[in-house]
Amino acid sequence: MADAVAPAKRMAPATALFALPGIVMLVGLGLLGYAPWSYVAVGCGIVIFGSAILLARHFRHVTVLRHYFEQLRSSDLSAHIAAPPEGGDLLYPGLNEAIKDTLRDRQLRRQELVRTIANHESVLTALPDSLLLIDTNQRVLRGNPAAESLFGRDIAGRDLTSVLRNPELLEATEEVMAGATGKVVEFTVPGQFERHLSCRIVKLATAAYDGTAAILAIHDLTAVRRAEQMRADFVANASHELRTPLASLLGFIETLIGPAKDDHDARVRFLAVMHDQAKRMSRLIEDLLSLSRIELHEYTPPSSTTNIELILESIANALEPQAREKAMTLELDFCGTGLVSGEADELTQVFQNLTENAIKYGRAGTNVRLITKHIKPGSGGARRLGKPGISVSVIDQGEGIAREHLPRLTERFYRVDTARSRELGGTGLGLAIVKHILNRHRAILDIESTIGQGSCFKVFLPLSSQASLDSSSSETGTQELEKRASSGGDAAA
Fold first, then answer.
1. How remote is the C-alpha of 308 from its chain's centroid?
2. How far is it, in rounded angstroms, from Cα 249 to Cα 274?
3. Any idea what DSSP says for residue 463?
4. Which residue has the higher pLDDT, 261 or 487?
5. Given this model, what pLDDT does residue 235 score?
6. pLDDT of residue 393
7. Reported confidence tier of residue 354, pLDDT bands at 50, 70, 90
8. pTM to 2 decimals?
9. How far apart are CA 351 and CA 394, in angstroms?
10. Side-chain half-sphere exposure of 474, counting CA atoms within 13 A
11. How far apart are CA 182 and CA 197, in angstroms?
């Protein structure tokens, strides 16, 4: 209504101005006596009426063009654009063609801008390093996916001090915002898995349209630092643990070269011991390398899914000959919910180590049980995992382990009975490997043991996403059936 009234209000004075020269001329003719006043009145009416007709058509075309431009302003230029309305060329020759050319140019520029923004977003998204964009008040405007993975998806809008609490980094950021040149700060983020990060802070010469005043580029040095620490640990552990078998080998070799050079019985006996010592060194080096590889990626959770019950069944088949030598039986008791989040090779290593230990340290003629159970929501295991899960128990009937030893079983080279462990071929690294693999899988290891009865090693593993959904649906359906049954029972009563 307002759009229709506005042209009408503008048309009256425009008509008067447009008709004024003719009216003045006619009134002049009347005053000079060249035309009767009746003719003057009729002539003025004709001039006003004709001006109104001409201007009405003009204002109609102007109003149509105005609506057309308003529609263009509010529309998406990536879509098809309607042609300019007819009548534009009546206002000015070639106006419609000029409008079409302008729109085509604007559409092309918009498409170029959209492609440029999309390319920049793709680069930002694909960057492996974390990027934080902050404004002049050190408020985080946004972060790329790597930053959201590191600090959480809710970082946008938060103050930098609540995202990164390192005083040295915050001080360097304030200095850069105050005009200092870019700075690089290395710092550590504590937590279950400690991270070592390097942050480069750069201030933009001109603030961006979204308010971005500075960029924090964060590079993860955790793998580098872990590799350095692992090299140091490997050298220390290897030099310590390899000293004994190396000393034995050297002693036997010197004996065989010297006093026992021609002693056939001594040579046969010594070579057998040397072979055992060499195999022990080989197992030790293999376990040390395996532990180093696991620790290197311990802070990165696995992204794949595997069936733990198929893994346990495969392990049982592989270790059956070893169990048969001690007249032992491997019993499998599965719940049928086997899909867990994890790497098949690493979980195989975990449960092969646990099952081999159960066979080694179990009494001859007894059973080793492998049991899986679904963890009910709200139970202790589910609360500790923080999500639905499955428990896997490896139970032996051995001599048991004293309570004071249980907290230290997963330490490197810790042995309850050193002589017996070495006699059975243990390196002292098996349970350390188990612990670090389970740490990577965000799993939990519980150890229970009773002297004279045996031990139970229980692992709590998170279910895969699909298994969690199926479990939730099943739980909901079971509760619904129980509710209906209860209602039916009440009605019958």
1. 24
2. 6
3. B
4. 261
5. 65
6. 92
7. very high
8. 0.48
9. 8
10. 11
11. 17
